Amino acid sequence: MEAYRSYEQTYRISTPLQKLILWTPFLIVFFSLLFWSFSITRPLFRWMLLENRPVEMLTFVSLLSAGILGLKLAWWTKNNGRGIIIVIFYLLFSAGLLFVSMEEVSWGQWLFGFETPSSIKSVNW
Q1: For residue 49, what are the contacts with CB-CB under 8 A and spacing of at least 6?
Q2: Are 94 and 67 within 8 A, CB to CB?
Q3: Which pLDDT tens digit goes with each residue over 92-111?
């Protein structure tokens, strides 16, 4: 319990939020396995995993948000006189998150309704 108070003061995160952050991955895995185990919910579970469905969209939003927050963190780190190596790491890591988030939604092709150019389609797997 002392650790929760320490983190609450250091990071300004309330104890209930800390517990939520800690337990959320376990709950997601538990409920996913539960949905997968019952034949009545299995079609819904499979549907959720398809392209452009809830799991992919949540992944996209999470990665995009993390990339943007990482850029803000890099900016804050630079302005507070931290080492250049740390700033570069945050920038590269955030750029990677943004790259992966855009790859997750095929660079917005279905969002904006444009097709892959034929010259790229011929070499695309």
Answers
A1: 55, 56
A2: yes
A3: 999 999 999 999 988 888 77
| 37: Cα within 13 Å, side-chain hemisphere | 6
C-beta atoms surrounding 74 within 10 Å: 21
Residues of the domain holding 13: 1-49
Q: Check whether residue 97 and residue 72 sit in a common domain.
A: yes
- pLDDT-above-70 percentage for the chain: 97
Regarding whether 84 and 38 lie in a shared domain, the answer is no
53-69: pLDDT as tens digits: 999 999 999 999 999 99
Residues 6 and 17 in one domain: yes
